[in-house]
Amino acid sequence: MRFLLLSVCALILSAASCKEDNAEPEIPVIERRFTLPEIDLSNWKVTLPVPRSDGKPLEVEPPEILDYATDDTLLPFMYNDSTDGSLVFYAYPESSTTNSSYSRTELREQMEPGSNNANWTFGQGGNMKGTLSVPEISSDSDGDRHRTIIMQIHGRLTNEQRDLIQEDDNNAPPILKIYWQDGRIRVKTKVLKDLNASDTEILRTSAWEDDEGRYFSEVVGTEQFTLEVIVSAGRLEVKMNDSESFVYDGIHMEKWGVFENYFKAGNYLQTSDANAFARVKYYDLDISHD
Where are the domains of the chain? Predict the structure, then answer.
């Protein structure tokens, strides 16, 4: 019996040894903790802190922007971070845009890909929602951290409005600017300087000014947070983390209804200090219109 057991054991060990000798080497399984961001860029163009030959900042529109992950021009400023599943927007002072002295790596909504001419009004409504963080940002000479704009709603004149007030371009003020500022989120909107201004006068940028601004109570620091912007006729709402909300629905929003608008998102660094920089990470970003 002892001989039989030893023989059986020998056969088992021999078979196991043959299996190990002949088997293909095992490929280690690497668990992917994060997937790359699924952000649809089909209706966005991006402005980069890179000057063109005419001095204006470089812009990349659809469909070229869809290749950002392999585009040598875009890669330094807009790239995937597979360690946390984000789309990174990197900016530093280099090339400013019209009506601003600051640089940006910022998305601009295009309802018709490749064109700035199709936009929306408050009456038509819109929604933008994103989850993001600001993990890195520089400080000034006093040690205070710089700030950056992470979301906007920008106004735009129609061609008829532009011609009516004899402007050279279609630019109108941003009705909404959302800042990351010293670890907190600050919201600023525009208000009319004169509520009795005529329908023609309110088309001018000079007719509007910033309100005092409001901070959400939560301190986000460098951690992730979610922002949602909800627009309807005469009303603007900004929500953070589905727990706190600012609503603007007074006369200023009613008057704003004359403008066209478009959403913006990314990293609009609010300084021209040498060696300044910021990285903003978006984990998701969605826009929709009724």
Answer: 2-288
Tell whether pTM > 0.70.
Answer: yes
What are the distances in angstroms from CA 91 to CA 13, 34, 210, 227, 281? 63, 24, 24, 21, 12
- Kindly tell me if the per-residue pLDDT of 70 is higher than 60: yes
Sequence letter at residue 115: S
In b/e form, how buried is each residue of 175-184, taking b as 16+ CB within 10 angstroms?
A: bbbbbbbeee
Residue 94 is predicted with a pLDDT of 75
Tell me the C-alpha distance between 131 and 24, whole Å.
43
Per CATH, the architecture of 2-288 is what?
Sandwich (2.60)
Strand partners, 208: 192
CA distance 224 to 230: 20
Separation CA 71–CA 48 (nearest Å): 13
54, 62 contact by CB (below 8 A): no
User: pLDDT, tens digit, for every residue of 132-186?
Assistant: 999 999 999 999 999 999 999 999 999 999 999 999 999 999 999 999 999 999 9
What tokens appear for 33 in the block? 């903790």
pLDDT at 242: 92
Give first-to-last CA distance, the chain, whole Å: 83
